[in-house]
Specification:
TIM Barrel, about 35% helix
Length: about 325
């Protein structure tokens, strides 16, 4: 099954169904959690639209990436959230805009009660720490994302520009989120050791497949660092089995045993997950499946852990 990076390289056109997106309503409620239901906060969604006011980048971190051919607007997302009792969402800057976070900044300004945002900055730019300060202090972002992968183009993760960026993150008290694979986990760990007080979130279980326990061991090793969190999203992309991805569930259980529920969070990765996993089935996967979770652990993963990293001030 294709990984998230494969989808980015192939372009969003194959992953997104325009009919599935367009049939959503354009308005939503305040996102309150219904009485008696768990507090659900999605830690990982992308929004974007084909709008000349917010042009897509001509080149990206992924050279073969094809820009989206359909829209994924915040209004569509709000309707999905309302229909599935998701109270709040963390929005992650989509790579189609490269380092220009203006579209997402405007979304955050329009819907401050519903969303928090994670920006991108160019990790090869010496001015990246100052750019991060601007996006956080002036535009309301709550974190930054870097994406180091295996080949030599991403060796910047080992270079002299990383410590200043991580140091700035720590000074701003915003999380560093990392989209990577197993090949760069040692590089990430060296930075975690240099900045033990910085909150770090590793996305999508580092896209490690359940049939590679030696790779999983490298991720489990982060459990000894109390400020490292893991998103247990992408169960669909790493699995060789159909929904509800029993092999991926076994991997999630190992992460639960190592990190505890307090450092695990769920996420849909909508709309990248389309058509493999529609939004409502992604919510149901974490809300209704994973039978090994206690009720307390499920509530922690669905909403409480996210608020430890991105406080929305909600209770439930």
């Amino acid at each position: 099954m294709a990984t998230r990076r494969d989808l980015l390289k192939a372009g969003m056109a194959a992953a997104l169904g325009s009919a599935a997106l367009s049939r959503q309503a354009s308005a939503a409620s305040e996102g309150a959690t219904p009485a008696g239901k768990p507090l659900i906060i999605d830690s990982h969604v992308h929004v974007f639209e084909r709008n000349p006011a917010y042009p897509f980048g001509s080149a990206t971190t992924f050279p073969t990436f094809v820009p989206p051919t359909v829209d994924a607007t915040p209004e569509t997302l709000l309707a999905l959230m309302k229909a599935n009792d998701v109270a709040r969402t963390v929005l992650i800057q989509h790579i189609c805009y490269k380092w220009d976070n203006s579209y997402l900044a405007d979304v955050l300004k329009r819907y401050p009660a519903h969303f928090k945002g994670v920006c991108r900055v160019n990790p090869e730019d010496p001015a990246a720490p100052d750019h991060l300060s601007m996006w956080v202090q002036e535009k309301g972002f709550n974190g930054v994302r870097i994406s180091p992968f295996e080949d030599a183009r991403f060796d910047w993760i080992r270079g002299p520009l990383m410590p200043p960026l991580w140091q700035r993150c720590q000074a701003l008290k915003v999380p560093m989120t990392v989209l990577t694979d197993h090949s760069r986990l040692q590089d990430v760990m060296r930075l975690v050791e240099k900045f033990p007080d910085l909150t770090v979130v590793i996305d999508h279980m580092a896209d490690i497949r359940p049939d590679h326990p030696e790779q999983l061991a490298a991720l489990l090793a982060f459990a000894r660092y109390p400020k490292v969190f893991v998103k247990i999203s992408h169960m669909w992309s790493i699995s060789d089995q159909p929904y509800p991805y029993r092999d991926s569930q076994d991997q999630v259980k190992r992460l639960l045993d190592a990190f505890g529920a307090r450092r695990l969070m769920w996420g849909t990765d909508h709309p990248v997950s389309l058509p493999n996993l529609p939004y409502e089935k992604s919510v149901a996967l974490f809300r209704d499946q994973l039978s090994f979770l206690s009720e307390a652990d499920r509530q922690q993963i669905l909403g409480k852990t996210v608020q430890e990293v991105w406080p929305f001030g909600l209770t439930g």
